[in-house]
Design brief:
This protein is of the alpha/beta class and 100 residues long. It is built from 4 helices and 3 strands. β2, α4 and β3 form a beta-alpha-beta unit. α1 runs parallel beside α4 and α2 packs across α3. The chain is globular and about 40 Å long.
């Protein structure tokens, strides 16, 4: 089994620099997700493994509702909070294995 990536130790430092999305690309991702969901709006979104929140605001805009970003890495959540000003986007600590 591969070793888990430790985003809190070092990986968070260069993550956004290497994986940044333009606003238009983030919107394209959100529109792609929308193709596979209910067309009813508003629709609340769970962004599981939200990382640095690269698409969270675009998801909130596309789905016209609140986005809950769940991310285990404190440093990645910090980065997400710094970059996201949308009041409909919230980030919290959590792991996929903990979701009921």
């Amino acid at each position: 089994m591969p070793k888990a990536v430790d985003y809190d130790h070092r990986q968070h430092v260069g993550y956004l620099a290497g994986r940044e999305l333009s606003p238009e690309n983030a919107k394209n991702w959100a529109r792609t997700f929308a193709k596979y969901t209910s067309s009813n709006r508003p629709l609340t979104v769970l962004d599981l493994g939200s990382g640095a929140g690269r698409v969270a605001a675009a998801l909130a805009d596309t789905f016209e509702r609140t986005v809950y970003g769940v991310q285990p890495s404190a440093r990645m959540r910090e980065a997400a909070l710094k970059r996201t000003t949308d009041p409909c986007v919230h980030f919290m600590e959590g792991r996929a294995e903990q979701i009921p």
